[in-house]
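Record 1 of the preview.
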Amino acid sequence: MSQANKAKLFAKLHVTGSPVILYNAWDAGSAKTIVEAGAQAIATSSWSVAAAHGYEDGEEMPLELVETIVARIAATVDVPVTADFEGGYSDNDTVLAKSISQLLHLGVIGINFAHRAM
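->
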């Protein structure tokens, strides 16, 4: 399924009165198992991804490793994938935009991140 079709499917999963349930994967294997159990979409959790790879949550894991893991998850499953991108790994809007573009290029259809107080 194309990334555009995954994005359309993800939008259709958001139905008033019937919330979409997103199961958190921490690597490609867990994502595949979750989909095989019937999930229609996958989310990542910054904490679970970090912990599974020996890091603390809070952008302690190198960005390149996050990108590698997210790319493997998106390539392994044929359902929409949305990624938890913590605080965006930058306070600079240009750098943040580049990182978000990279994640989209890697195959995710959604990104959530928390605003950082400056």
